[in-house]
Write a structure and sequence with these properties.
Number of domains: 1
Low-confidence stretches: none
Largest sheet: 2 strands, antiparallel
Number of helices: 13
Order of helices and strands: HHEEHHHHHHHHHHH
Structural class: mainly alpha
Helix content: over 70%
Radius of gyration: 21 Å
Oligomer: single chain
Strand content: under 5%
Number of strands: 2
Amino acid sequence: MKRLLSIELQKIWKNRASRILTITYFVLLTSLALIAAIKIEIGPIHIYAAEQGIFNFPFIWHFNTYFAALLKIFLAVVIVSMMANEYSYGTLKQNLIDGMSKKEFIASKFLTVVLFAGISTLFVFITSLILGLIFSDYTEFSIIFSQMEYLAAYFVKLVGFFSFCLFLGVLIKRSAFALGFLFFWYFTENIIYGISGRFIFHDFAAAKKIMNFFPLESMSNLLIEPITRLSAIKSIGNQMGVHELKDYDVHFSTIAIVLTWTAIFIFSAYKIIKKRDL
């Protein structure tokens, strides 16, 4: 395992573009702390981000994991390029000639995916913990470490998403086309939702239940946007007559769906590599 990871990390680090994207990603993760410095002044209205409760425990776990997940596209490019470069530079064939099995090859890629997701989760945990200890109104031990399931959901979301990117890299071979297909699939899921809700089920709630089993939608469901949980936003909504309630919890069923897709992506990538003439 250590040998496989070492090989993959060397490949990424020696590639200048991948190295820059990886460093940029983790720098942006730690820059979540800059949100605390945001101040909005519109006439008599003064909004200081740190005073809106976004860094209160345990809400901060939900808030930071949701917004940190938006940055995953940086590592998605690295993952896709990592696979595409294997074909472009012929390193895949060379690894196999040197004695690496195809199963070990896919395992090395998946281990890299898990490592990236694990380090990202650790970064978010440390950043959130520091911000919370500085700005949170609640610092009791039991409150600080409650709702940690958002970190678990964040980890699973990254593993699932990066596994999808890895599969696309194996399937399509070219990073630009693989990323293009990723965006195409995102719009495809939304189109299917719209068509099924309007013309098939005639009910968007029923269509939503079906869409929850699609890969990107299931990953999205792991972390629901947290902004509407803020008391200030709720009060504004109440004044406008909007009382929409959302389920912000992390559900095991959603985690199970994403993990199932993860297994499908990795297994499919292995099958493609196994059958493909390299």
